[in-house]
Design goal:
Number of domains: 1
Oligomer: single chain
CATH class: Alpha Beta
Strand order of the largest sheet: 1-3-2-6-11-9-10
CATH architecture: 3-Layer(aba) Sandwich
Strand content: 15-25%
CATH superfamily: Zn-dependent exopeptidases
Order of helices and strands: EEHEEEHHEEEEHEHEH
CATH topology: Aminopeptidase
Number of strands: 11
Shape: globular
Number of helices: 6
Radius of gyration: 17 Å
């Protein structure tokens, strides 16, 4: 529970600490009651601007598959983006993919500081605690962050089915790309985004500590329903097992 009296994250526990932690920064499209809809129409909360569609159920399925812990954000990225550093200008978005966010337009420094304290900091403290528990048990945990991306961006279809994002550490990224390509999936190497973002979740908790890490982006139409999640979970799990085996 955060200082606001509201939960700031969802934790899926594991039977015991191990060598793998799943993260899902943009798991939810919900907002705390005090924020209403931030002045947005309800329809906007079905879009990617509010959450990474399909990423939360996929994260839960993978955590169950590996009996690994997972941490998921419980509030929309429109409230505050958990995958940004405290000084990032896109931490609280005033305009997102063409949508003006009235409830953020007037957010002053004090309001941003409040959101950081109530919702952002507890999530990142929980990640640190999870890592510490794994390290205390003798593991250097790999962090796997689950996201999703839109099939079309600015009227241009995206060909990739899965994107593997990474910064300086390719220990998981390269074998994952190879495994997904071998499974017949069109896989982006730092596509559709570049994985080098200083201050983001993986940079803060893994890259800066030398822990193996990777961000897996799945195209949203592939995991928009339970059937899609069920179909891709074993494929992603198999590729992850191959990549993780190479760390030992």
């Amino acid at each position: 529970m955060s200082a606001s009296g509201l939960p700031a994250f969802e934790r899926i526990p594991a039977p015991q600490p191990g060598a793998l932690i799943f993260l899902c920064d943009h798991a939810s499209n919900a907002l705390p009651p005090a924020y209403g809809t931030l002045g947005l129409p309800e329809a906007e909360f079905k879009r990617h601007i509010a959450s990474d569609i399909g990423a939360a159920p996929l994260t839960r399925a993978l955590a169950a598959e590996f009996a690994a812990p997972a941490l998921l954000g419980v509030w929309s990225r429109l409230l505050i983006d958990l995958n940004r550093g405290p000084d990032d200008p896109t931490l609280v978005m005033k305009i997102s993919d063409g949508a003006l966010v009235p409830g953020n337009a007037a957010a002053d420094a004090a309001e941003v500081a409040h959101r950081l304290s109530a919702f952002h900091a507890p999530y990142h403290a929980a990640i640190q605690a999870e890592i510490a528990a794994c390290q205390a048990a003798g593991f250097a945990p790999a962090l796997v962050s689950m996201h999703s991306f839109t099939p079309v961006w600015r009227d241009v279809p995206r060909p990739w089915q899965i994107g593997i994002l990474w910064d300086r550490d390719d220990r998981l990224a390269k074998p994952l790309i190879a495994a997904f390509e071998a499974a017949g999936l069109v896989t982006g190497d730092n596509q559709p985004y570049d994985g080098a973002l200083e201050g983001d979740t993986l940079w803060t908790h893994a890259t800066s500590r030398g822990l193996p890490n990777v961000l897996i982006e799945v195209r949203q139409d592939l995991i928009a329903d339970a059937a899609g999640v069920a179909k891709l979970t074993p494929v992603i799990a198999a590729a992850l097992r191959t990549a993780l085996a190479g760390l030992t």
